[in-house]
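Narrative of activities, Objective 1.

The group set out to show that a structural description can be obtained from nothing but a protein's sequence at a throughput compatible with the screening campaign. Below is one input-output pair from the validation batch, recorded exactly as produced.
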Amino acid sequence: MASPAETRKFEQFAYEITDVDGVPHMALIAEKLKTMKHRQLRQDDILLCTFPKSGTHWAWEILNMIVAGKAEYTKHWQNSAWLEYRTEEELEALTSPRVLHTHLLPRQLPESVWKLGCKIVFVQRNPKDCAVSCFSQVISQVWKDEEGMETVCFTGSWDDYLSCYQDGYIPYGLIFDYIRDWWKTAEQYNICQVHYKDMKQDCVNEIRRMAEYLDRPLPEKTYVEIAEACSFSNLKHANEKLKDQTYHFQWEPGTSGYFRKGKTGDWKNFFTVAQSEKFEKIYEARLNEPFPY
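Output recorded for this entry:
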C-alpha cells in the first residue's frame, strides 16, 4: 500500500499506477505482469531490454534489420512487439525469430527466457538523459481516460518529475535499480551490453557487435546501410511516414512525438547544478561507483 507521500507523487500522472511485485507499473498492464513469469517464449526469440527512453526504437529497428539481413524497415512500430503490453495472441502471431522488447527487470521476465537461453541485448543510456527524455515524452503524450477525456500523461513541472524519477515513483520504478539488476544478471548470463553513447559515436561498430552476438554476421556494407537507415532523421521519417500506425500513441499538436532530439548531453539544458549533484549522489549510493558521465 502506497504511503500518502507516494500517492501524492503518483497523482500528477494521468493514468493509474499500481504496485506489482514491488515495482510501480501502469495499472492497465498489471494483470499481464502477474502471469508474465509463466509465459512460454521461443528459443530463437531475441529480447531487447531497456529502461524507457534509452534508445529502444533505435536498437529494435537495428536488431530487426540484422535478423532480416538487410536495411529494410519493419512494417509496424516497435510497440507491436512490446512483451508486457501486447497480448499473448498478438505476440504469437509474430513470425520467428521475434525481436521482443521490454522494460522489465530480469526477475520479472518469463522463466522460459533463462531456461531456453534466449539472446538478450541490454541497452543503457546516461540516466540524466533518460530522465529528460522521459519527462519530454510524458508532458507531450496524450492519455485518454475511460470517459474519453484527454490530457497529457504528466501534469507537473520538470522539478516535480525529476523528484518522482530519482525516487522511483514512475512506471518501471527506479532506473538505478534497473541498471544494477541488469549488470548483476550479465555476470551470470551471456548478454550483449550496448551503450547509447557508443551507438552515437560508432553505430556501425555496435551493429557489428550485435550481429556477431546473434550469430548473424553480415557484410560490412550491410552494417553501413543499416546505420544509415537507422540514423535519427531517417528512422524518425520511417516511423512517422512509412510505417503502419496501428500501435502509434497520440501526442499533443506541435510536439515531436517519440523522436525528439536523439542526442547525448541534453540533460544540461534541464538539470540545475544542485539537481545534478543530488542525482549523482543517488547513483553512486545505489550502484556503488562514481557517476561515469
